[in-house]
Amino acid sequence: MGIDERFALSSSALDPVQLAESLRSAHAGAFVSFEGRVRDTDGTRTVVALEYDAYNALCLTEGAAVLREALQGIIDARCVHRVGRLEVGDVAVWIGVIAAHRDEAFRACRFIIDEVKRRVPIWKKEHYQDGRSEWVGLGSAEIAES
Amino acid sequence: MAMQKELRILYYAAFREATGLSEETIRSAARTAADLYREISHMYGIPYELSTLTVALNDQVVPWSSPLGDGDTVVFLAPFAGG
């Protein structure tokens, strides 16, 4: 897999089984994956759907950089993040890591999700049951959904 | 008077909704990225404080004090919320 294919954005549903199949190596004694899923609450309000928007060019360079940094000590890794509208239960982000041993695989998987959340320019709009919606991280942005 | 330059601005997420645009090309005398944000946020009534945002210039995150050049592409970045 080319270095720049390890991080990707997808506007269609993620298939964790197929993604896991893409990480195969006879040297891998461990496979660790993480799925971020759409939750039905933000802690107080009922969430019915999410919408992700991404700054593609910067996502791809920064995502590739995160995956490149994560490769230290493991065999391979992939991360795919959804864009567009998602329903509760949908997979928003999928990360898979293969390594010789579990310690490195768990560590790399944790590193990737933490760094993707911190460094990759993706934004999330929550749609609530009461018809309102809000871009997460911009508290004052609450607007009524038309 | 500061020289006018042509700047392309891409709008994502909350900025796309606030402006009603996914991108625009404007002529501006803004010297820095911060100057441009003040101009644009005033023009569209965008309520977000500059201190809560970051900015990208030609697909790289840069300081707000970065000078703008003719033909630059600017993106205002709300706090990331992926994952």
Structural notes for this entry:
The complex is a heterodimer of chains A (146) and B (83). In chain A, α2 (56-70) packs antiparallel against α3. Chain A is of the alpha+beta class. In chain A, β7 and β8 form a beta hairpin. In chain A, the strands form two sheets. Chain A has a five-stranded antiparallel sheet with strand order 5-3-7-8-9, with no helix packed on it. Chain A has a four-stranded mixed sheet with strand order 1-4-6-2. Chain A is built from three helices and nine strands. Chain A has helices at 16-21, 56-70, 102-119, and strands at residues 7-10, 30-37, 47-54, 76-82, 84-87, 91-99, 122-128, 132-135, 143-144. Helices cover 27% and strands 36% of the residues of chain A. Chain B is 23% helix and 29% strand. The chains are: A alpha+beta (146), B alpha+beta (83).
Features:
heterodimer; A: 146 residues; alpha+beta; 5-stranded antiparallel β-sheet; B: 83 residues; Ubiquitin-like (UB roll); 5 strands; globular
Cα-based radius of gyration of chain A, to the nearest Å: 16 Å
CATH class of chain B: Alpha Beta
User: β content of chain A, as a range?
Assistant: 35-45%
What is the molecular shape of chain B?
globular
Radius of gyration of chain B: 12 Å
Bin the helical content of chain B: 10-25%
User: What is the name of the CATH topology of chain B?
Assistant: Ubiquitin-like (UB roll)
Oligomeric organization of the protein chains: heterodimer
Mean pLDDT over the full residue set of chain A:
93
- The secondary-structure element order of chain B is EHEHEEE
Indicate the topology:
The complex is a heterodimer of chains A (146) and B (83).
Chain A: E1 7-10, H1 16-21, E2 30-37, E3 47-54, H2 56-70, E4 76-82, E5 84-87, E6 91-99, H3 102-119, E7 122-128, E8 132-135, E9 143-144
Parallel strand pairs in A: 1-4
Antiparallel strand pairs in A: 2-6, 3-5, 3-7, 4-6, 7-8, 8-9
Helix pairs in contact in A: 2-3
Chain B: E1 5-10, H1 13-19, E2 23-28, H2 33-44, E3 54-57, E4 60-62, E5 73-77
Parallel strand pairs in B: 1-5
Antiparallel strand pairs in B: 1-2, 3-4, 3-5
